[in-house]
Design goal:
four-stranded antiparallel β-sheet, three-stranded antiparallel β-sheet, 4 helices
């Protein structure tokens, strides 16, 4: 009994298998029209891999030598002190924020995944990596370091701009927008 037959028999009997995935069934060409339109916006994030077969069998080992970040994410409660006296606020959000961080050249293979339409590797940091929030928080803190806690508070991809007057606020928002990476959309 093959692996897929075993899984189907022992684990998936009550589930509805996808067409073409039944034991002994033939592969069915994937319906690419079902791919979400968001993929088209993020097409440059993925690279089609040249892999044509599965990697050789290796002993299974779950241990990954990972050094977790020692930089904690900011506490929301720490945002309140600098806000004292502010009367005008704007909330900005960096769209597709993690995709601003490029995967180190040569490490793309570590983000490999398979879909019905092919084998892919990320070129930029995907969501879900262990240190992704810390790496991204360190990046935005570095980019906005001269404004941080003076008139902005940043939590991951959310930027709170606060000011004492509307005139001052226009200057602050303009300054923040000038610091965002070129071409990076900001959602208000």
């Amino acid at each position: 009994m093959g692996w897929s037959s075993f899984c189907y028999t022992h684990y998936l009997m009550s589930a509805q298998p996808a067409p073409g995935c039944l034991p002994g069934g033939s592969e069915v060409a994937p319906d690419l029209s079902a791919i979400p339109t968001e993929y088209q916006d993020l097409r440059e994030v993925f690279i089609k891999s040249r892999a044509t077969s599965l990697p050789p069998h290796r002993p299974y080992d779950c241990r990954i030598d990972l050094l977790p970040s020692t930089t904690p994410l900011p506490l929301i409660s720490s945002a309140f002190e600098p806000l004292q006296g502010a009367t005008v606020f704007s909330k900005l959000e960096l769209r597709n924020a993690y995709h601003l961080v490029r995967i180190r050249e040569g490490d793309e293979w570590k983000t490999t995944f398979n879909t019905a339409s092919g084998h892919y590797e990320y070129l930029v940091m995907p969501f879900g990596l262990t240190n992704a929030p810390y790496v991204f928080q360190a990046l935005v803190n570095y980019v906005f370091h001269d404004m941080l806690n003076r008139f902005i508070f940043i939590y991951i991809d959310d930027i709170l701009v606060f000011s004492r007057s509307p005139q001052e606020h226009v200057l602050h928002v303009r300054q923040v927008l000038q610091h965002t990476p070129s071409g990076q959309p900001v959602v208000c």
